[in-house]
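Customer ticket, subject: "Can you confirm the structure for TonB-dependent receptor?"

Message body: Hello, I'm evaluating your service for our small team and ran a test protein. I'd like someone to confirm that this is what the system normally returns, since I don't have a reference to compare against.
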Amino acid sequence: MSKNFRKDGLGSLMKSRSGGFRTLAAFGLLMPLSVQAQVSPSDEKKEGSGLEEVLVTGTRIMSTGYNAPTPTSVISAEQLTANAQPNIFTTVAQLPSLQGSTGTQTNTFSTSSGQQGLSSFSLRGLGPIRTLTLLDGQRVVGANVTGVPDVSLFPQLLIERVDVVNGGASSSYGSDAVGGVVNFVTNTRFEGFKGNVQGGITNYDDNETVVAQFAAGSSFLDGRLHAVGSVEYHDEAGVGPGPYGVGLAGGRDWFTQRTLVNRNVTNDGSPQYVVIDYAQPYNYTKYGLITSGPLQGWAFDEAGNPFQFQYGSNGVPDRNAAGTVSGCLPGFCVGGDLSGNVDSGRTLQSDLERINGYGRLGFDFADDDEVYVTVNLAQVQTHNQPINGMNRPNLTIQCDNAFLPASIRAMCAAPNGNPADAITSFQYGTSNAILPSTQVYTDRRQYRFVLGALGGMSVLGKNWNYNGYYEHGVNFSDVDVKSIMLSRRFNQAINAITLDGNIVCADPVARANGCVPINIFGGMRPSDAAFNYIMPAKGPYQRTRQNQDVASFNISGEPVDLWAGPLAIALGVEYRKEEYRVRADAYGNGILPQAGIEGTPYNDDYPADPVLLDTGNNWYAGNYKNGEGEYSVKEAYLEFDLPLFDTESVGRANLNAASRVTDYSTSGTIDVWKIGGTWDTPLDGLRLRATTSRDARAPNLSELFAAPVTTTLPNFLDPFRNVNVLAIQNQVGNPALTPEIARNTSFGVVLSEPAWLPNFSVSVDYYKIKIDDVISSLSANDIVNFCFRGVLPTCNAFNLNNPNGPNFINVQSFNFASIETSGFDIEASYRWPQLFGLPGTFTVRGLATHIREYISDNGLPGTIPVDTAGVNIDTKADWKVLAIQSYDTDKFSFQIQERWISDGVLGNQYIECQPGTCPISTVNRPTINNNHVDGAFYLDIGGSYEMLPGTVAYFKVDNVLDEHPARVTIFSNPALYDALGRVYRLGVRFEL
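Agent reply: Thanks for trying us out. I re-ran your input and got the following:
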């Protein structure tokens, strides 16, 4: 911690170790929200300076005794080490106000997102794009085209504290700070050598983890030259995948293939939507199933022998052209032969390897002035399997297929023994267990350089502080997909005939271009030549480069002494430029130019093939596209803190206000502001605070200029034909987007260590956020369903029955109406020095966030606002609670932590009812049989013991009770629930 705390600032809440107990944050996640003023190590008082500088994240004011009106949570270095996570992101993300953050357990079901392993924060459930993450108060180049940085690439062992500002801070820090700010503050004056070595494993004997971190610092030239640096290595083996069926990796038994099925019947007294466990799609199986017509229900075993498939639900195939099954729900039966289910093959946590190097060199060229340079070089690589196989429903198989068993050919000639009903082809579905499952590899590399200066000066007898820096950051993101089919080549390879005594591909054009036939009736492995044809060694790829340049200069001072104290002001200017370029392979991107971007030509890795589409989208998934774009931002701000009064009779109060003018090259000029204040009342320890602000978020590079992002939807329901189809979702950019405008309001009460109850603190804050012109998009489901119901003219955005190419749905961002959310934050802590006469300190604390509402209104005709507060298949649980109890002495410590998530629902729009009791189901108020989603309770324990001076051994057990994630209709929700089970960690920390 910095050495320059003031008694009227943070220092009043920080006790010395010699005083019999450690800092309030030593083993707790937070100091109470009343803690507002912190000393920034980078802006620490220099010898001879006349002003003690106090910097509060969320404001630019540096002043003695300053109290900011915005609730700010602080996580100390002690807590980061006590929580013993391989990535400090996990510790911060446990704060209840952070909902919807990403991490190594999220995005593992994705092929195309490129966000696997990306550690990014989401405050208030507003998403990472509306949470500004800083390093020493400075911006960091994005690790994805959405602009969010990867926290795992920060120098973790040098982090001195993390400040979390729960409220809008656009007027102080600029765009993206709609939900708040997370600022990582490093120790720039560390001296000595320290390290941390840790290992971990789950109780399912997987996700083996190794972490090694080392940091060093020293001063030279009589203390004027300061050098600090760190290196770290982090490897996690990951979890998954499981086999086909319902078994998960490591024998985890919580997966039940829970599915939400739309009956498409709204007025028969039964619920329109039905939640079922052990759901089985009836349009494919592990080794193949005839899905319609007179032969419907014949499946193939691993040896290729036909048999009558067991549908479950006592289902009986109707053997009609639609492929319906009597006794089953549309698209699904319950139970039966579940061996072909593919969801169990999803990776539960990406395997990850991370390398990080950081250095800072600072030189005091005067007593109060420093010039410095920082370098951050880091890399993180991940690997995941999105799903088992590559299921292909609705394939057309010819009855003369050379691989088709003779018995099935005979049935084609005389179904049910009647030659008059002869057929020449049938519909067929397979999960393609004969093919290796798709593997996704990501590689993100960050190169960040900062040149800066900070210090103080005297102007007209007043002390002023300045802080300026230039940052250049480059991030390279590579995505490579292995073992994935070219769908059109697959279609050619499965259409096999006998020619001159040899089995060959039926299409002569395909044969001339290397087509090798494959047998999809059973489990026979294709030949290497067939593999190479449908799944070439060089699969889809995406190569992205992002550049960020920032120049910022800020000054702060107290130019005037007023009746209740000095007037403090801060002002500054900033210029920022963001740009990106992405290139993709020819089979996914196509060779035709896109919006003026030069296309990627075919080459030796991607030879031209008339079977394939020159326009791209040839892969089963991972159809990446070329793209590029840039924008720049110029801004200036002014902030002031006006003391209103300071007397014993009425207490002390201040008014804080700020204004920022921002000019975006893409969308013009916008003004943001804030106004707030605090009142330390005459009542002992009681403080009131309130703030309101106008904040903004400009569209990011992805929303403006993104290369079309393509996602495969293998079981998309076509409501026009009531069948599941394979479709491609294309997400495209929109350069006409305008900034989002938000209004943040909060007010709260803080009681901090009153004389009548020393060592106790509690705070309660209410918040309300309204965002207009929200940048979002309709889901693929909404686009199709709105057209089907005649609600909106969205029919030209998709084609789900496209014989000449892939089925597709085009999804584009636009400025829709609004998001409105409100709720409460509650924090409390109490500590007992020498409880029951024992040495050391016992501390308890609790944090809770309650989301009252989270209402999204797209403003489109025929729709109503949707409230997702408490929707536990989303990220916004009604209540999220964190409680910590710790006992700490100079020799050892022990900590218990509880994390609780309240029960929730699948959707607040649903009316839950049972058959015979349901009202008519409508678009806006549909009926459902089960709208409940369980919450979760997690118990964590940890402790440490000082073996030698400066050397501490520690342990940590997360999820002691091996709590399973709630069963939801989207496989699982790792953004809210833990999917791994109990985790054990052991390690050693040392400092010399």
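A couple of notes from the result: The chain has a mean pLDDT of 88. Residues 700-736+778-812 form one domain. Feel free to reply with more questions.
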